């Protein structure tokens, strides 16, 4: 789902929150463990993104270097000795 399918997400989220609040029992209390879990999950996601971006950069650099060297070698072989 993107902003083309749902241009304004805030009213939808407000509606869903109101549904949840109406269905809660009278003795409901927030779970104190929820916020730290969410923070840890966000930190893991950020670390994973950094790791993948590092590998992606490494592959692009070495792939570009390989393509450049292959182009030089092939050009030298196709043109032959001068």
Q: What fraction of the residues are assigned to beta strands by DSSP? A: under 5%
Percent range of helical residues = over 70%
Which radius of gyration do the C-alpha atoms yield? 27 Å
| Main sheet properties | none
Mean pLDDT: 89
Q: What global shape is seen?
A: elongated
- Unreliable runs: none
Count of alpha/pi helices: 2
SSE order: HH
Structural class computed from helices and strand pairing: mainly alpha
| Number of strand elements | 0
Quote the distance from N terminus to C terminus: 59 Å
Description of the structure:
By secondary structure, this protein is an all-alpha fold. Helix content is 74%, strand content 0%. It has 2 helices and no strands. The termini are far apart. The relative contact order is 0.04.
Write out key terms for the chains shown.
mainly alpha, 82 residues
Summed up:
The chain is 74% helix and 0% strand. It starts with 8 loop residues before the first helix and ends with a helix.
């Amino acid at each position: 789902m993107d902003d083309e399918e749902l241009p304004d997400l805030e009213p939808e989220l407000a509606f869903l929150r109101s549904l949840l609040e109406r269905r809660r029992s009278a003795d409901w209390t927030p779970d104190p463990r929820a916020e730290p879990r969410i923070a840890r999950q966000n930190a893991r996601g950020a670390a994973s993104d950094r790791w993948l971006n590092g590998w992606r950069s490494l592959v692009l650099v070495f792939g570009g270097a390989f393509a450049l060297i292959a182009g030089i070698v092939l050009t030298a072989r196709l043109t032959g000795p001068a």
